[in-house]
Design brief:
- With 393 residues, the chain is of the alpha/beta class.
- The protein has six helices and 16 strands.
- A six-stranded mixed sheet has the order 1-5-4-6-7-9, with helices on both faces. A four-stranded mixed sheet has the order 3-2-14-13, with no helix packed on it. Strands 10-16-15-12 form a four-stranded mixed sheet, with no helix packed on it.
- Helix 1 crosses helix 3 and helix 4 packs across helix 5.
- The chain is globular, with a radius of gyration of 20 Å.
Length: 393
């Protein structure tokens, strides 16, 4: 898929069209007791999260070391993940077969949390990239505008969530993780199925990435009425949400990220590298091969004059910093590449959405790497929240 199409899926999520089925008559429910309906489930044969996450650490002087990864099968909490629109299946909605795009997205956005939590990631029948391409071209697929298109994917996620709670949770704390369309689904699930219910006591945190989570201006709640924004890694029952833009390319006036429609609210921005505010080092885990978007951008030469490492991920300590900023009506995580002429590492960080001819679509920011760019920080925060949750219990 191109970066432009991936951006379109974000538009679909923002407008509420990015989930569901092609027909008014609801399809049969999925049986989430079947292992094949899950991308990730602890102990499942072919668990998509049981993969190689080895990273090469590229230091400021150009030297490198290898960082291995090991999941913790005895992690004290769980993570429940809803992935963004990635399906290239034909038609309006995806099937329930895990293809390369679903497998790749959990590798990029999710599996690294396995060092801190047991991971559960359901497949669901989502609005496809195929349908989004057709919409962009002005020739929508029949049924794409049906009101039921908004509902079936969401229903799948609710069914998967309830199956997980009934069969696997066993009273454990849980972190909810989503990106883009997946975050949009979680913004529906949390008020309907969690807030005000007994299970809210088990919510460790909600990571609402690459999506506009509305909060009342000057406050930490809004769309989530009783789940405030996180201000400390020892705080539980809170939410982290942000959208990412480069410091050199702030959101233009037509951006759909970083603002909400309700004039009494604003888009939340919580910096995973500095929850209480200010600047922090973004501990990125960047793909050394295919990006989440299959972007046409070439993999950077990580160290000038040296062959690239062979590990699936690269991490570049100290190269990227971030802070939440409010500018021209937008709230967003501003990412800065700390270019240094004495540093032999690349200053090129892929993640921009691009259109024809490689032109950057400035209104989408670094949507493609919202999760990757702060993955190390997010994993660390979840680890600390798990300790705080255990202490509270």
């Amino acid at each position: 898929m191109t970066g432009r199409i991936f951006a379109t899926l974000a538009l679909g999520a923002a407008l509420g069209i990015g989930v569901g089925a092609a027909h008014a008559q609801a399809p049969a429910k999925n049986d989430y007791a079947k292992p094949e309906t899950w991308l990730c489930w602890p102990g499942k044969a072919g668990d998509a999260c049981a993969i190689d996450l080895t990273a090469t650490v590229v230091k400021a002087d150009g030297s490198t070391s290898v960082e291995t990864f090991k999941a913790d099968p005895k992690a004290p909490i769980d993570c429940f993940y809803v992935y963004p629109t990635v399906s290239n299946d034909p038609g309006v909605v995806s099937d329930m077969t895990a293809n390369a795009e679903e497998l790749n997205v959990v590798k990029q956005q999710l599996a690294r949390f396995g060092s801190k939590c047991r991971i559960y990631a359901p497949l669901y029948r989502q609005f496809t990239l195929t349908a989004l391409r057709a919409m962009v071209s002005g020739t929508p697929i029949a049924g794409a505008a049906d009101p039921a298109v908004r509902q079936v994917g969401y229903n799948d996620v609710v069914d998967a969530w309830n199956h997980y709670l009934a069969t696997a949770n066993k009273g454990r704390g849980v972190v909810l993780i989503g990106h883009s369309q997946g975050s949009g689904l979680l913004q529906r699930l949390i008020p309907a199925e969690i807030e005000g219910k007994p299970v809210q006591k088990q919510l460790v945190s909600a990571l609402i990435l690459g999506s506009n989570l509305g909060v009342e201006k000057g406050k930490d709640t809004g769309a989530f009425k009783s789940i405030p924004l996180c201000k400390s890694a020892r705080q539980v029952g809170c939410a982290i949400s942000y959208v990412t833009f480069r410091d050199t390319i702030p959101p233009p006036g037509n951006s759909r990220f970083g603002k909400v429609a309700n004039p009494a609210m604003e888009a939340a921005c919580v910096n995973p590298a500095a929850l209480a505010g200010g600047v922090g080092e973004l501990k990125a885990y960047l793909s050394n091969a295919d990006n989440i978007s299959n972007s046409a951008a070439a993999t950077p030469e990580w160290v000038k004059g040296k062959p690239n490492p062979k590990t699936p991920f690269v991490t570049v300590p100290g190269l990227i910093s971030g802070q939440c900023v409010s500018k021209d009506g937008f709230n967003y995580l501003e990412a800065k590449v700390n270019a240094d002429p004495a540093d032999p590492r690349t200053d090129v960080i892929n993640g921009d959405v691009t259109g024809p001819g490689g032109v950057i679509a400035k209104d989408w920011g670094l949507h493609l790497i919202d999760a990757n760019i702060a993955m190390g920080n997010l994993v660390e925060v979840v680890g600390e929240q798990a300790k705080a949750y255990a202490a509270r219990k």
